[in-house]
Amino acid sequence: RFRRTTAALMLSCCAVAVTSCAVDDGPTTQQVIVGSGTAVQSELVADIYASALRRAGADVPAVVKVGDRTSTLAALDAGRVTLVPETTGALLTYLNPTAEDTEPDDVFVAVNKALPEGLSVSDYSMAEIEGASDDGPAQNIFPLFRKGSLTDDQVKKLNIVAGELTTADLTDLTGKVRAGGASIEVARGWLDEREI
Question: Which of 48, 105, 154, 182 has the fewest CB atoms in 10 Å of its CB?
Answer without folding.
Answer: 182
